[in-house]
Each structure stands twice: as C-alpha cells, then as structure tokens.
From TrEMBL, chain A:
<feature type="transmembrane region" description="Helical">
    <location>
        <begin position="49"/>
        <end position="73"/>
    </location>
</feature>
<dbReference type="GO" id="GO:0005789">
    <property type="term" value="C:endoplasmic reticulum membrane"/>
</dbReference>
<protein>
    <recommendedName>
        <fullName>Dolichol phosphate-mannose biosynthesis regulatory protein</fullName>
    </recommendedName>
</protein>
<comment type="function">
    <text>Regulatory subunit of the dolichol-phosphate mannose (DPM) synthase complex; essential for the ER localization.</text>
</comment>
<dbReference type="InterPro" id="IPR009914">
    <property type="entry name" value="DPM2"/>
</dbReference>
<comment type="subunit">
    <text>Component of the dolichol-phosphate mannose (DPM) synthase complex.</text>
</comment>
<dbReference type="GO" id="GO:0030234">
    <property type="term" value="F:enzyme regulator activity"/>
</dbReference>
<comment type="pathway">
    <text>Protein modification; protein glycosylation.</text>
</comment>
<keyword id="KW-1133">Transmembrane helix</keyword>
TrEMBL record, chain B:
<keyword id="KW-1133">Transmembrane helix</keyword>
<protein>
    <recommendedName>
        <fullName>Dolichol-phosphate mannosyltransferase subunit 3</fullName>
    </recommendedName>
</protein>
<dbReference type="GO" id="GO:0005789">
    <property type="term" value="C:endoplasmic reticulum membrane"/>
</dbReference>
<dbReference type="InterPro" id="IPR013174">
    <property type="entry name" value="DPM3"/>
</dbReference>
<comment type="function">
    <text>Stabilizer subunit of the dolichol-phosphate mannose (DPM) synthase complex; tethers catalytic subunit to the ER.</text>
</comment>
<keyword id="KW-0256">Endoplasmic reticulum</keyword>
<keyword id="KW-0812">Transmembrane</keyword>
<keyword id="KW-0472">Membrane</keyword>
<dbReference type="Pfam" id="PF08285">
    <property type="entry name" value="DPM3"/>
</dbReference>
Length: 80, 93
C-alpha cells in the first residue's frame, strides 16, 4: 500500500539527510571551531571521520563481491 | 559536456576556497594529503547520501493507480479464460 511506501521513503530520506548533515558538520565545520567548545563532545575525534566511511565502503565492496561470487558459483553448478 | 565542466569547476572552486580557509585557520606543515583525502571521502559520502535521498523521495511520490490494478486483474482473468479454452495450460501461479 502507499502508506508502507511513504513510511519507508520517509525513513530512507531522513537517514540520508541526518548522515549528510552530521558528516558535513564533522568534516567541514568542526576544524574551524575552537577545541574547547562544547560541540566537540557530540562528535568523535576527527581521525574517525576518515576511518568510518572507508571501513564502511570496504565492507560494502567485500559483501558485494562475496554475493557476486556466490551467484556465479551457483549458476556454474546448475549448468554442470 | 559543458554543463559537467561548469559544475566540476564550481565544486573545485568551493573546495579550493575551503582549503584556503583551513590553511588560514590551522597552519598545516604536511597536512595536504590528509585534507585532500578527507575531501574525496566527503564527496563520495555525499554522493551516496544524495542517491539514498532520491530513492526515498521517489518512493514517497510513487503513484499506485488502484483502478489500473483492478483493470489489470480483470484482463488477467480474461486472458486465462481465453487460453484455457484454446487448450494452453494456465495453471495458477
């Protein structure tokens, strides 16, 4: 039904918007803020700003390649 | 092609401005690699976020046309009937 579509769409958009604002704040605005401002409490140390996306990207790529490999093996087994 | 070049040059200009600002605030001796890699990762992350956002918005605006669905079901029943009389096997799926 349209309600489920609306709910999932809203959830996806809100997740993407929140990730985008958090990451933008983290990477772009925080380096210009003095180190004793209270806002730094809400953000992880700056090194994580690079590690977390890289780690997530590597995980995504490996999961994708595992999936593709499994599909290829299954199709080869079915043919033979 | 000209559009892409325009957009790319705008993005590059904004990034260069941000790097200049950064160098004015924090004097980095050999931070250049770190800054550029951060910018690259930020671009990829924002592209992924934009894709997710477009998918979410498309989902929210997707029309379901319930009348067309009903008409389609009627068409399917009609077609099944027709083929059953012709002898084709139209077992329920």
């Amino acid at each position: 039904m349209e309600l489920a579509d609306l709910a999932v769409g809203l959830l996806l958009s809100s997740i993407s918007l929140s990730i985008f604002t958090y990451y933008t704040f983290w990477v772009i605005i925080l380096p210009f803020v003095d180190s004793d401002h209270f806002i730094h409490k809400y953000f992880l140390p700056q090194d994580y700003a690079i590690l977390v996306p890289v780690f997530a990207g590597v995980t995504l790529l490996s999961l994708l390649s595992v999936f593709i490999g499994m599909v290829m093996l299954k199709s080869k087994k079915k043919k033979a | 092609m000209k559009h892409i070049v325009k957009i790319l040059s705008m993005v590059l200009a904004v990034f260069a401005f941000w790097i200049g600002l950064l160098q004015a605030a924090i004097i980095p001796p050999s931070y250049t690699w770190l800054v550029i890699s951060t910018l690259l990762i930020y671009t990829v992350v924002s592209l992924g976020c934009y894709g997710l956002l477009m998918v979410g918005i498309g989902l929210m605006q997707f029309p379901t046309c319930p009348q067309e669905a009903f008409l389609l079901q009627q068409d399917i029943v009609e077609a099944k009937d027709f083929f059953k009389h012709k002898g084709v096997d139209v077992g329920s799926d």
